[in-house]
């Protein structure tokens, strides 16, 4: 499935190409991904946490470690975030904002599946500098049910925004279930993405295309089933009350 190529980013951005701790993306690449936040204390806290996550499991990262890596005090860290989950939520929100801030005008006339494909690939691209961090996070979630539950909640919220970006209804019970299904689909493709070193993430694109094809078939069945359930389908407009529907006394009153 073809996507419109994006112009290469300029290397003359004022950031030194210093390898980030723990491997993965360089400091320059991360700065390019989040140019508005790297220079702020809050941004440094988020980036410090993601760097530590690429180096060690979730469970071993302490709040003091994050503050030290970010070059801030514990009091400053506490002033911005209440927990590691709060820092992770802020990172996910920034990734979503980067995707939503992109130019989607060229996809307006495309079919629904094409629009969703483009939005999700933009999100994978935004996550590229954080592959090792994501890999570490998912490994910890396998043995940490509360963390896994929190990640699912974050993913569902994120996918509601991705659906909205693709101009697909995401509100109400049906929208929530659609977002949950998309979160599972996205997580399934994530394993391919994390090991995809091909230019342009060709393997990820192929896996996402296949997954959306299967999801489209399931979604069609899902929508038909939901239309038969109270509260999910389209509500019928109530017809006007007729006098024949009421007992004689009430009919007279009407």
UniProtKB/TrEMBL annotation:
DNA-binding region extent: 62-81
InterPro entries: Homeodomain-like_sf (IPR009057), HTH_TetR (IPR001647)
Name recorded for this polypeptide: HTH tetR-type domain-containing protein
Limits of the HTH tetR-type domain: 39-99
Organism, as annotated: Rhodoplanes roseus
GO molecular function: DNA binding
Annotated segments matching region Disordered: 1-39
Gene3D superfamilies assigned: Tetracycline Repressor, domain 2 (1.10.357.10)
Keywords: DNA-binding
